[in-house]
C-alpha cells in the first residue's frame, strides 16, 4: 500500500472523498455533544453512517480500482451491510429510551402513536 | 418459488456478493458463487419466512433515486442544525403517521429509509392500529411530514409489495 502509484487526479479525488466523508462523520460526532435530548442526539451519528460512510467507501473504491487496475466493487458491500444494520441499533436504542421515559413518566416521553 | 430454488432473490444476492468478494471472476469463483447461491437459501427454509414478492422494477428504481436525493439533502440539513447555521427557532418533536402499508417487508424497507435518513427516527410502530411514531429533528416545515412520508415513500412501497 505504501509503494502504490496512482495518477495525481485520482489521488486528489480519493483525498477529497475521504476528507468529505470524514468531515460528515466529525459533524455527527460533534452533534452528539451539542444536541441536548436523547431523541435529538440519536440523529447525529446517522451522518457518519450514511453520507460519511458513502463518501469514504467511494474513496476506497476509487483508490483500489486505480491501484489494482480494474473496477473493485467489493467495498460497496460495506455500504450495503451498514445501511441494513444501523437502523436495527437505532430503533433498539429509540425503543429502550421510549420505554424508560414512559415508565419513569418523564415530561419529554414520546406520546402514544 | 420452487423446491429447487426456494428463494431466488436471496440466491442471486448471495452469488453476486460472493463474486464481489472474490473478484476477478474466474471459472472457479463462478462455480463456487453458483453453489453458495444455490445451497445457502435452503438454511432459510428452516425459518419459514414468507416469500418476498417485489414487483414494479421501475418503481423500485424511482424510489431508490428519491431516497438517495433525500438522504444527501437531509445529511446537509442535519449538519447545518448541528453546526448552528440555521437562523430562527428550531422545533423538534414527534409526528404520528397513519400507515396503510401492512406488508412486513415493506415496513422493513420503510424503517431503513426513515432511520437511514438523518433527521427522522422510527420510534414506534403499532401493528394493531397501523400507526407509526416518528421523531423529527427539525419540525419547522409543520404538518406536511405525514404527506411527505406517505407520498414519497409509502405509495411506491405499496406498489412494490402489493
Automatic annotation (TrEMBL), chain A:
TM region positions: 6-32, 44-64, 76-93
Entry keywords, A to Z: Membrane, Transmembrane, Transmembrane helix
Record bears the keyword Transmembrane helix: yes
InterPro entries assigned: PhaG_MnhG_YufB
Top-level taxon of the source organism: Bacteria
Annotated coiled-coil segments of the chain: none
One Pfam family from the record: PhaG_MnhG_YufB
One term of GO molecular function: sodium:proton antiporter activity
The UniProt record lists the keyword Electron transport: no
PANTHER family given in the database record: ANTIPORTER SUBUNIT MNHG2-RELATED (PTHR34703:SF1)
Name of the protein in question: Multisubunit potassium/proton antiporter, PhaG subunit
Species annotation: Methylobacterium gossipiicola
UniProtKB/TrEMBL annotation, chain B:
Subcellular location: Cell membrane
Pfam families: MNHE
Topology relative to the membrane: Multi-pass membrane protein
Highest rank taxon of the organism: Bacteria
GO molecular function (one): monoatomic cation transmembrane transporter activity
Record's GO cellular component terms: plasma membrane
Record has Magnesium as a keyword: no
Bilayer-crossing regions: none
Keywords tagged on the record: Cell membrane, Membrane, Transmembrane, Transmembrane helix
Main location: membrane
Entry annotated with the keyword Iron: no
Family: Belongs to the CPA3 antiporters (TC 2.A.63) subunit E family.
Protein's UniProt name: Multisubunit potassium/proton antiporter, PhaE subunit
Native organism: Methylobacterium gossipiicola
